[in-house]
Amino acid sequence: MNKESVVLVGMPGAGKSTIGVLLAKELAKDFVDTDVLIQLREDKTLQQILDETDYMNLRRIEGEVLQDADLPNCVIATGGSAVYSEPGMARMRELGPIVFLKCSADELRRRIHNYETRGIAKRPEQSFADLFAERQALYERYADITVECDAKSQEVILSELKSQLD
Ligand SMILES: Nc1ncnc2c1ncn2[C@@H]1O[C@H](COP(=O)(O)OP(=O)(O)O)[C@@H](O)[C@H]1O
Ligand SMILES: O=C(O)C1=C[C@@H](OP(=O)(O)O)[C@@H](O)[C@H](O)C1
Ligand SMILES: [Mg+2]
Fold it and tell me: Main location per UniProt (predicted)?
């Protein structure tokens, strides 16, 4: 049996957590959301971590969680800021292919209306457009597979993703 994992990366709102669960079910793999691993390890919500410290601390913790990940045979939904940790992403690559769920800025704005309060690990004054541009390059750098997700149902994305994995 193939014990490889599949790692999903992309902007907040790209669908990593929701598509990840569906993909895990279809591939008969476990599902892990690294945001949940961070919260369990810290015994705090992501928002609490951001409120009590800062975005760099959240990124640091996320990097450690990714580096320590022992997650064979899983679909792994990472947080949008996972790509700031080079060692964390190196560990993800050991576990399996990295899939970039790619959405345009307009599509993300349609899906997510609470960018200021959603707990994004960004500089306080950083605009969404600036964050989008900065991150795009990082997702592209790490992606083995890219799935364009604009204006597609979750079912269509899932089937395109599965055929690219085959
Ligand atoms: N293909 C899609 N089309 C429209 N909305 C979607 C799609 N995929 C996910 N969503 C919605 O976008 C929001 C963010 O999804 P989520 O899986 O939490 O993203 P992420 O984990 O990448 O931040 C959710 O409300 C989800 O239902
Ligand atoms: O992009 C980000 O900076 C973040 C995205 C969140 O995950 P999702 O991408 O699943 O929303 C979560 O990891 C954290 O709040 C920071
Ligand atoms: Mg998520």
Answer: cytoplasm
